[in-house]
Structures are given as C-alpha cells and as structure tokens.
Design brief:
7-stranded mixed β-sheet; 5-stranded mixed β-sheet; 13 helices; globular; binds flavin-adenine dinucleotide
Length: 541
C-alpha cells in the first residue's frame, strides 16, 4: 500500500480532502501541474453562504432550486446550504482572508451579490477569491507531515479489482511527467478531485488542466456518470486573441455593469425582466443570439458609469488584466463573448461523496452530487466542493479505520509494443477537431441534426484515438486527448438522450421543458466503449 488515501487533484476539493484525511492516515496527493494550478485558483466572484442576519437558509435553498430547473436533489441542496457557513468558517480558521470592514458591532464581512441570488451572500477576497483560498489551503497542506505531494504527476486510469462486480478501486496508475514513467499507486480510499472539463470546448474560461480526467477515468472504470449535457457557458469572457478567455466576473453585473450592443444600445431586458441580473444561462444565450443574428464578433460590458476609484479598488485583477490588453474598465465598454465555464454533470456521488465503485470518492467539479441540477447558481461550486470534501473525508476516515482488507495483486503498467510517436500531429489535429465541433454542434444552442453530426465525428475520432493510444508511448497530451474525447462522447450521449430544453440544455427541436424528463441523465460505458443511457435517479427539487 502506498498510502491510506490517494487524492487526485489540488484545487479546493483535493486540498480539503488531503487535509481532512491526514488525521486518519497517510495521504498521497498527486496533481498534474504545480500545486496551485486549478480552476479554484482563478475563481474571482467568491463563495456563496448564508452569512447576513437578513439572509436565510430557505432563501439560499430556494435560489439554488430555482436555478436548477427542477433537477436539484433537495436533500443535497439542504445539506450544502445548511453546512455551508460552518465550512466557510473552517476556511477562515485556516487563514483565508475574506474582505470585510470594522463596524459598530465588530468585524463584518463584505457580501457580494451575483445573478440568481436574491440576497447578498458572496464572501470574496477582492476579485481573486480563489487565489486567496488556494494560497491558505496550500500553505497548510504543505506543512502537514502526513501528506506527500507529487506535482507534475498525472493520474491516467484507476487501479481496479475487476474480479468484483462492481470493480473495486485500489488507487491509480500515475504518469510522472518528468520521467515519463507510469507508477502504480495503491490506496485504501481514492478521491477524484480532478476538476472540470472546459477544455472540451474551443472557448473556455478554464485553465489548461481542465480536461475532464476524473470523469473520464471513472467512466472507463464503469462508474455511473450523470447530467453531462448541462454545461454552463459563462456569458462574459474578454474577447481578445491573446486573452485566452479571461473571465470578467459576474460580480461586475451584480455591481451594475451593463451589456451593450456595438452601437451602445442595451438588449438584456428583451430577454428577461431581470436584465443583466438574469441567471447566466439566459445571459449567455442572449449574447449568443445577438452575435449570431447580427454577425457580431462580440458584445460589450460597461461599468464605466461607476466611480473609477471604486472600480479599481473592487476589481483590481480584472482592471489590471483588461488594461494589459488595452481596455480601461473605468473609461470604456469592454468586448466580451461567452465561453464554456462549468460542468454541472460528472461522476455520480452520494451525500458522502461515494461513487458507484467501492473505495472511490468524487468531490468538486468532477462529481455530480445533485446540488446544481440543470444549472449551477453562481458561487455555489466552491461551496459544494468544500462541503463534499469534508463529508467524503469523514466517511473515508471512518472506513479506513475499520478496513483490514488486503489489496489484490494489480499488474504493473504495461506499455506493450508501444514506441515513441513520430506523429504527434495526430494529437494536435484531433484535439482541435473535437474542441471545434463541440463548440459548433454541442454548444449553447443545440439541435437534433447538430448532435447527430457530433455523434458521427466523435465515434470516428474515438476509434482513431483508441488505435493510436495503444501503439505509442504515453504522454500527458495523449492521455488528455483521450479524456476530452471520452468526456465529449458523454456530453453528446446525454444531450441526445434528453429530448427537451431544461436549464443549460437548450435545443431548438425540443424548445420547452417536458415534465416527463424531470430526471437525471445517467450513462455508463457500454460493451462497445460508447456511453449508454440508463434509467435515472429521481430529482426531488
Ligand atoms: C475563471 C473561473 C472563475 C470561477 N469563479 C468562481 C467563483 O467565483 N465561485 C465559485 O463558486 N466557482 C467559481 N468557478 C468554478 C470553481 O472555481 C470550480 O468549480 C472549482 O474551483 C472546482 O474545484 P475542484 O477542486 O473541483 O477542481 P479544480 O480547482 O479545477 O482542481 C482540479 C485539480 O485536479 C488536477 N488534475 C486534473 N486532472 C488530473 C490528473 N489526471 N491527475 C492529477 N491531477 C489532475 C488539476 O491540476 C487541479 O489541481 C470559477 C471557475 C473558473 C474557471
């Protein structure tokens, strides 16, 4: 056994799991880049939690259920919302410094408001909340002797005891990117905390590490995967060739920023009475429609009517970054486009973070817990990751304390007859192709025909990647390509299965919600390797 607990990923979910498991045994934390590199560290807006006396659990629950369009699991929503304040307090105790000020009653946290929230309840650290959370968590994790950190190590596949049904997870095969060696890492409990899958799409707010590895590994192992059709597109990423989809936080619209057409006119009130404060799927679809109908390359976001010093003080990161690309947020509207932002679906997990495979937990964005349903409410994802990392670690600690089983003999990684690739262009070609057709055919607005085209493309590409994969020596690029193809396959299968429009899934062929589809879409790997939909878990929201 290499460790009692193996944690894959070092965002807010992975760092929290590592820290919480450390009191129950040895922890191995593998992460494919440097420790801080994750979506978590780029989170700008903040973390939602009931904090003010004017707010209530009922209100946060109602807002979450409202956004989720009938697919949230009420028990999960209640748990996350009610346990939220305690988990945020944990963060503060670990050294996270959220913004606040002294008032007559002592220290008061500044609470932001974002689209879909009916109250101010977003704790933030200026506009770089994720950076502050990851700074504090990383410091504590690095100082914890029971945790061994392996950076630049990419988990490839799960170690499975296939003699059992369902297979039992005993850890993972992990590629050391520096030496290109694949190691077998065996553990009593394994946590998938590998984050989202934005890189499946051409335009994304996500960092390069977001290639859906956790979802793809669990899928290949036979775990249930759900709700992959619900991809959230962030409405406002900076439109600039060098900006690599830099995100302009929703808090800007919360603080009064307006969306404008190139001629300076507003358009949001034609789509929703809440105008700029409508939930982000409505805003993203409105922008997509304006751009497509008029052939515009972008629309504009304008906060220049607010006091310049206040804007610079409240949004320093966004201000600096825009300035670097030649736009002064305090003086002019900034060009924006939508981009893939958050994956509501993932590995099916229960209230203790348990997946459908024994000894395997999933937390954070790669899990599908039932919190978000068909649409995520802004700033609920950091909260979800925290609450579930806490609960899953508690469950795994108790389990490991009782566990006496010996792991089976699991074979070492076998590179077979693989040789060095002399055709790395295969990876680049397939990578670009998948991301482009996913953007065009499986993006913000879908149709039966577009999805059928995407299905044809992915089937051919999957076959090509499968053949190539086993004939060349493994690299991280190849492993990631295989993963984005697998995740794309799952997204297409779920989107084709759901013959209605609900939440983030919008198709022109079935434009209305249908009560018969008020269920999760669950898929598993079929005999051919392609995802097969199965009957669903019921939603209660
Ligand atoms: C720009 C941006 C802004 C956002 N703003 C907010 C916000 O204000 N509020 C909010 O609630 N949410 C926000 N979100 C969403 C939120 O940040 C994420 O959902 C959340 O941080 C996910 O945390 P995680 O720990 O699950 O994954 P991540 O933070 O993405 O961490 C995943 C980790 O897994 C590692 N990894 C991946 N694959 C492998 C592998 N095969 N082997 C080893 N390691 C691997 C990665 O390197 C990384 O360390 C934002 C997201 C983005 C991209």
């Amino acid at each position: 056994m290499d460790a009692d607990f193996l944690v894959v990923g070092s965002g807010i979910a992975g760092l929290t799991c590592a820290l919480r498991c450390a009191s129950g045994g040895s922890v191995l934390l593998v992460t494919k880049d440097r420790l801080p590199e994750s979506s978590s560290q780029y989170a700008q807006g903040g973390i939602a939690s009931v904090w003010s006396p004017d707010d209530s659990f009922e209100s946060h629950i109602a807002d979450t259920l409202g956004a989720g369009a009938g697919l949230c699991h009420r028990d999960v929503v209640e748990t996350v919302v009610r346990e939220g304040p305690a988990r945020v307090r944990d963060l503060i105790e670990l050294g996270v410094r959220f913004d606040g000020h002294e008032d007559r009653e002592g220290w008061a946290y500044d609470l932001g408001q974002e689209g879909g929230h009916s109250q101010r309840r977003i704790l933030h650290a200026l506009d770089a909340t994720g950076h502050e959370i990851i700074r504090a968590l990383s410091e504590v994790v690095r100082a914890t002797p029971q945790i061994r950190i392996l950076e630049n190590h990419l988990a490839i596949d799960l170690l499975l005891d296939r003699a059992s049904e369902p297979p039992i997870c005993w850890g993972a095969y992990v590629l050391d990117r520096a030496t290109s060696q694949v190691h077998r890492m065996c553990a009593r409990a394994t946590f998938l905390c590998a984050g989202g899958a934005g890189k499946v799409y051409l335009y994304t707010s996500n960092p390069d590490v977001a290639t859906g590895d956790g979802i793809a590994m669990a899928y290949r192992a036979g775990a249930a995967i759900a709700n992959m059709e619900f991809i959230q597109f962030h409405p406002t990423c900076l439109y600039h060739p060098q900006a690599k989809s830099f995100l302009l936080t929703e808090a800007l619209r919360g603080e009064g920023a307006l969306l404008l057409r190139p001629d300076g006119g507003r358009f949001m009130s034609r789509y929703d009475p809440r105008a700029e404060l409508a939930p982000r799927d409505i805003v993203a679809r409105a922008i997509d429609n304006e751009m497509k109908v008029h052939g515009w390359e972008s629309v504009y976001l304008d906060i220049s009517h607010r006091d310049a010093d206040w804007v610079r003080a409240r949004f320093p990161t966004v201000y600096e970054r825009c300035l670097r690309f030649g736009f002064d947020l305090t003086k002019e509207p900034v060009p924006v486009v939508p981009a893939a932002h958050y994956c509501c679906g993932g590995v099916v997990s229960d209230l203790d973070g348990r997946t459908t495979l024994p000894r395997l937990y999933a937390c954070g964005e790669n899990a599908c817990t039932g919190l978000h349903g068909a649409n995520r409410l802004a700033s609920n994802s950091l909260l979800e990751a925290l609450v579930f990392a806490y609960r899953a670690s508690a469950h795994a600690r108790a389990f490991v304390a009782r566990d006496r089983a010996a792991p089976p003999t699991i074979r070492a990684w076998d590179p077979g007859a693989a040789t060095d690739s002399d055709e790395a262009v295969v990876v680049t070609q397939n990578w670009d192709e998948i991301r482009r057709f996913m953007w065009n055919y499986v993006g913000i607005v879908r149709s039966d025909r577009r999805l059928a085209r995407a299905r044809q493309r992915i089937a051919a590409l999957q076959e090509e990647i499968r053949q190539y994969y086993w004939h060349v020596l493994l690299t991280s690029d190849l492993a990631e390509l295989r993963n984005i193809a697998t995740v794309a396959d799952c997204i297409i299968a779920c989107a084709q299965h759901r013959r209605e429009s609900r939440g983030l899934h919008y198709t022109i062929d079935h434009p209305e919600p249908d009560p018969r589809w008020r269920v999760d879409t669950v898929v598993r790997r079929g005999a051919s390797g392609a995802p097969v939909p199965e009957s669903a878990r019921g939603a209660e929201g």
